[in-house]
């Protein structure tokens, strides 16, 4: 099986959140399973500045977009033996950020990602590499299945993964029409959304299979409360819709061999965790204290992540004998609030604005508790990382958080604490419950150990993706019920590939 990942961000090249973690780590697991996996993403400025060995692929082509001709030049690099294509267009991708400045989204995101999709679809149709599975991720890649010709699509299956339904790629119809693509009426209907154009809707309706990143979120998004207006569309595809919880990359997230840590540790040898707490307290100017509970957050600063609740409990955190460290970037309202709080100069609170991978690793390792009171959470990776690093998550019971964190009230082998009602009172009650448990170190250490020992690697979830891919191929009649390829295809560039 040949698989192409199409994504707007991929670790380690360009990352704003969990999407990059998934598109960076799932391909590695699929490759380990023996599949021919490749990745394509835009060639952002930050990648130019990175330490990668990048060579021109010797291929470029043009796309007509809004009356102009835009050229895309293909480059090639690799990560752990996986070929990675980088699509260069200086005008669209030679910028400081992926989707927008800290103040606002780029106003031409529709053009930028329509270009990415159109160019990639044209490249695929050229046929040098014929993937069996075209795996698209989030709205930035949603136009790919619509750009591919019917004839081309007979030979493969498109899987569309929703990493966050809150970002759908909705644009005014006129902006889309102005791009000048020759879409049929039928295709336009798939994209139509209350007078606007909704790119994600188009992909949900045109991919062979759609999935999202946890089973709970898969159920939730079919309801009005979580469906962001697409619940009806998702219900209409319920037989082709599934949830597969994300894993984390155990080579990047391994406390026993993490170069960012002050000292390595593991479930079998946990003593080094204390040195990481001390090191973090020193680094951030917090009072050095082994006993004071240290709470942490590594997150986008957004309402989705529960910062309205965090804002309400901040004064209580500093009043109690607790410490809180926050690392994040995002919405202005929360930046201002946290910066003001930091300005008060308390030695129990540290706000670190920005995106800082090294500090994120130190926070996961040094804290006792990770807070994640999300309003909704498709999967969430921070809680998985925290558990691997012996940091006990306190989370809202929603989406992937509900699927991955086991509360002592619900499960004998608890790994964290959770609450249902989205309120600061419930959040605070859960924190207090965690702190009461921590007073009995034996019970606490059991929870820590159980979290550290739970397998959050890609092993299991990659098998589910393998199943999903096979289902996609069966739907198209490319493989038969017993999993054998139904008909041979000609594949000029890759005849050595296994089937
Ligand atoms: P999201 O909804 O933002 O994708 P996830 O929990 O799924 O949330 O994934 C977030 C990922 O981004 C995690 O790997 C987390 O450690 C990382 N992350 C988030 N904010 C920051 C930051 N400010 N600095 C470094 N890493 C961050």
What does this structure look like?
- This protein is of the alpha/beta class and 499 residues long.
- It has 20 helices and 18 strands.
- The protein has helices at residues 18-32, 45-48, 90-93, 109-126, 144-147, 150-153, 173-178, 185-191, 199-206, 215-220, 231-236, 272-284, 307-319, 332-343, 357-366, 382-388, 399-404, 424-439, 441-453, 459-475; strands at 2-6, 36-42, 55-65, 68-79, 82-88, 133-137, 157-162, 170-172, 192-193, 196-198, 209-212, 241-243, 294-301, 323-330, 349-353, 369-372, 392-396, 417-419.
- It has a 9-stranded mixed sheet with strand order 3-4-5-2-1-6-7-11-12, with helices on both faces. A 6-stranded parallel sheet has the order 15-14-13-16-17-18, sandwiched between helices.
- A hairpin with a 2-residue loop joins strand 9 and strand 10 (196-198).
- The protein is globular.
- Adenosine-5'-diphosphate (ADP) binds next to helix 1, strand 13, strand 14, helix 15 and helix 16.
């Amino acid at each position: 099986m040949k698989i192409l990942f199409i994504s707007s961000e991929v670790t380690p090249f360009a990352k704003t959140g969990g999407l990059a973690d998934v598109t960076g780590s799932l391909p590695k697991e699929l490759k380990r399973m023996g599949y021919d996996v490749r990745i394509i993403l835009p060639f952002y400025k930050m990648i130019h500045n990175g330490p990668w060995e990048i060579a021109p692929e010797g291929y470029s082509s043009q796309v007509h977009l809004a009356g102009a001709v835009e050229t895309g030049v293909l480059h090639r690099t690799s990560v752990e033996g996986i070929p990675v294509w980088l699509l260069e267009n200086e005008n669209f991708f030679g910028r400081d950020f992926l989707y927008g400045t800290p103040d606002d989204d780029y106003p031409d995101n529709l053009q930028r990602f329509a270009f990415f999709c159109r160019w990639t679809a044209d490249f695929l149709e050229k046929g040098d590499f014929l993937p069996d599975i075209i795996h698209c991720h989030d709205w930035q890649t949603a136009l790919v299945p619509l750009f591919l010709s019917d004839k081309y699509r007979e030979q493969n299956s498109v899987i569309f993964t929703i990493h966050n339904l809150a970002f759908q790629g909705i644009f005014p119809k006129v902006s889309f029409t102005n791009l000048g693509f020759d879409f049929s009426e039928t295709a336009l209907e798939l994209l139509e959304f209350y007078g606007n154009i909704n790119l994600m809707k188009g992909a949900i309706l045109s991919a062979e299979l759609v999935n999202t990143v946890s089973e709970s979120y898969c159920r939730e998004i079919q309801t009005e409360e979580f469906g962001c207006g697409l619940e009806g569309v998702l219900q209409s595809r319920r037989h082709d819709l599934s949830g597969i919880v994300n894993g984390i990359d155990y080579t990047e997230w391994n406390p026993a061999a993490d170069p960012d840590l002050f000292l390595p540790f593991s479930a079998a040898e946990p003593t080094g965790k204390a040195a990481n707490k001390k090191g973090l307290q020193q680094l951030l100017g917090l009072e050095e204290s082994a006993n004071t509970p240290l709470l942490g957050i590594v997150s986008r600063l957004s309402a989705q992540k529960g910062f309205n609740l965090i804002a309400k409990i901040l004064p209580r955190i500093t009043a109690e004998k607790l410490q809180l460290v926050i690392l994040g970037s995002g919405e202005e309202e929360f930046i201002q609030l946290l910066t003001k709080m930091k300005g008060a100069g308390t030695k129990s609170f540290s706000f670190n604005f920005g995106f800082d991978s090294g500090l994120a690793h130190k926070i996961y390792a040094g804290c006792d508790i990770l807070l994640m009171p999300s309003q909704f959470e498709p999967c969430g990776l921070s809680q998985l990382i925290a558990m691997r690093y012996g940091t006990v998550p306190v989370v809202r019971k929603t989406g992937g958080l509900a699927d991955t964190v086991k509360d002592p009230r619900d499960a004998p082998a608890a790994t964290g604490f959770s609450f249902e009602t989205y309120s600061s009172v419930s959040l605070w009650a859960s924190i207090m419950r965690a702190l009461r448990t921590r007073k009995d170190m034996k019970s606490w250490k059991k929870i820590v150990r159980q979290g550290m020992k739970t397998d959050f690697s890609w092993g299991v979830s990659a098998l589910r993706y393998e199943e999903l891919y096979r289902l996609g191929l069966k739907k198209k009649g490319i493989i038969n019920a017993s999993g054998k390829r139904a008909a041979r295809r000609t594949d000029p560039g890759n005849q050595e590939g296994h089937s």
